[in-house]
Design goal:
Shape: globular
Order of helices and strands: EEEHEEEEEEHH
Mean pLDDT: 95
CATH topology: Nucleoside Triphosphate Pyrophosphohydrolase
Number of helices: 3
Low-confidence stretches: none
Number of strands: 9
Distance between the termini: 32 Å
Largest sheet: 7 strands, mixed
CATH superfamily: Nucleoside Triphosphate Pyrophosphohydrolase
Length: about 150
């Protein structure tokens, strides 16, 4: 069975139009990557776990902030890896400057035998839909289209 992730596409309506909240992955691999590297807050979940519960948990782990509201289920998307992302849109507003992510540990530099900790997410931001299309992982761009059709 394909791996599954659950996530939240947080959006807000501003004077300048619709904005979406995206996260940039932390760690050395993504340090200098921008276009196509950003993502909605999401994470893997098990088959026996409720996907929306998992999505809310992952949002909290990756931002340090809980999210509530009226969740709208979006069409799942499949990443190049084959992983299926189940996502919900919810209207809300959080301060992207105050996110606090959990950490992960990896060997760095490679083959050094040294372990280092990195934040799972190193930064977050609010983006207009056109800019978000450039920044977001290609497969997740369909979530933006689905959001616009839905709201």
């Amino acid at each position: 069975m394909a791996k599954q992730s659950a996530g939240i596409l947080l959006y807000r309506k501003t004077g300048g139009g619709l904005q979406v909240f995206l996260l940039h992955p932390g760690g050395p691999f993504f340090k200098n990557k921008d276009a196509g590297a950003w993502s909605i807050p999401k994470g893997e979940f098990l088959d026996d776990e409720d996907a929306l519960v998992a999505a809310k948990r992952e949002f909290l782990e990756e931002t340090g902030q809980a999210i509530e509201g009226k969740f709208i289920q979006l069409q799942p998307v499949t990443l190049k890896s084959g992983k299926i992302v189940h996502a919900w849109a919810v209207e809300g507003d959080i301060d992207h400057e105050t996110i606090v992510s959990n950490l992960f540990e990896m060997e760095w530099p490679p083959k050094s035998g040294k372990k280092q900790s990195f934040p799972e997410i190193d930064r977050a931001g609010w983006f207009g839909v056109d800019e978000a299309r450039v920044k977001i992982n290609g497969a997740q761009a369909k979530l933006l289209d689905n959001l616009i059709e839905t709201i």
